[in-house]
Specification:
single chain, 76% helix, 0% strand, globular
Length: 212
């Protein structure tokens, strides 16, 4: 009993820490929340979690192992993911002269489906996510608790569930804070420049990363 409690405490604690770690997915969710409001932020989070679900399933069946052992496969996925981040950076820079509204009117700037789709792609096109699940989940596989693929699946689902709770909380908090801020063209321009620069930096970091 105590051993099980220690196991779940360690696992869930690690899952929470992972969820609040800064990365392309969390930055994207925060950006969408500030620019388009709480609903779009929540949908963006769902998209990111859906993308993570793809990696969990892939890890469970061993497909993600290809990214670890094959430099060629890793490079292809890495380049695609990096250029997608570059595209998001370009969009942010292009919108530098737009007003940033956090009212309901701003929801018309992006459809729920597009926010969801972008969230999915950001997570799927980052090979580091695939490698993370391949490196993290096996550490919590236990003998006598079912087959390895099944354990990887439900442990991965739990990581995503914890991440969803954390991200939803962050979205709600960010939405409340942003509504108290008076945003004008100047602030909007600087915010978009900052966001664009961050996405650009993340893309460069990803493209120069290795699978080691």
């Amino acid at each position: 009993m105590i051993e099980d409690l220690n196991f779940w405490f360690l696992f869930l604690s690690a899952a929470v820490l992972i969820s609040i770690s800064p990365g392309p997915d969390l930055i994207y969710i925060l950006t969408r929340t500030v620019n388009n409001g709480k609903k779009v932020g929540l949908i963006s989070s769902l998209g990111v979690c859906t993308g993570a679900l793809v990696h969990v399933v892939a890890a469970a069946v061993g497909i993600s192992a290809i990214l670890v052992t094959s430099a060629y496969a890793f490079t292809i996925v890495k380049i695609v993911g990096a250029f997608y981040l570059f595209f998001l950076a370009y969009q942010a820079f292009k919108q530098k002269n737009r007003n940033l509204n956090v009212t309901k009117k701003s929801f018309t700037n992006i459809s729920m489906f597009k926010a969801f789709k972008e969230g999915v792609l950001i997570d799927i096109l980052n090979p580091k996510v695939a490698i993370f699940f391949m490196a993290f989940l096996p550490q919590f596989v236990r003998e006598g608790h079912g087959s390895i693929p099944i354990q990887l699946l439900y442990l991965g689902f739990l990581v995503i569930l914890v991440g969803m709770v954390v991200e939803f909380s962050i979205v709600i908090l960010t939405s409340k804070v942003s509504k108290r801020i008076q945003v004008n063209k100047s602030v909007s321009a600087w915010l978009n420049k900052i966001v664009g620069t961050i996405f650009l930096a993340l893309g460069l970091k990803l493209i120069f990363s290795t699978n080691k």
